[in-house]
Specification:
This protein has 108 residues and is mainly α. It contains three helices and two strands.
Length: 108
């Protein structure tokens, strides 16, 4: 799971846990993770996704879906779109709470 403090670059799964979060450290962490085919990273409650421009085997298969079904605490697994969607779904169904997912990006 996520490391904090003096973590090895690219190992922090939630960048809000970094001691020194700024534009340079954020971009460096994302670049290192991207180069390892780790395209999902949290910044607090926000899921940042970097387009890999290629297919990453196993990233959306049924086994991966199963890891995130009824997850509960997102910190139990690595950042993933399935964690965000399952959290929203569970809060909607079980908590009877309206949910909103904002998707923003740049194309090209």
């Amino acid at each position: 799971m996520a490391f904090t403090g003096g973590a090895t670059p690219g190992q922090t799964e939630n960048l809000a846990e970094l001691e020194n979060l700024n534009e340079e450290s954020l971009l460096n962490e994302l670049k290192i993770r991207f180069n390892k085919d780790i395209i999902y990273t949290y910044v607090g409650e926000i899921l940042v996704t970097v387009n890999p421009f290629k297919w990453i085997p196993g990233i959306y298969d049924q086994a991966m879906q199963g890891k995130y079904a009824n997850l509960g605490d997102k910190k139990r697994e690595s950042p993933h779109l399935f964690a965000v969607s399952d959290t929203a779904f569970q809060n909607m169904v079980n908590g009877k709470e309206n949910q909103v997912c904002v998707i923003s990006g740049e194309s090209g």
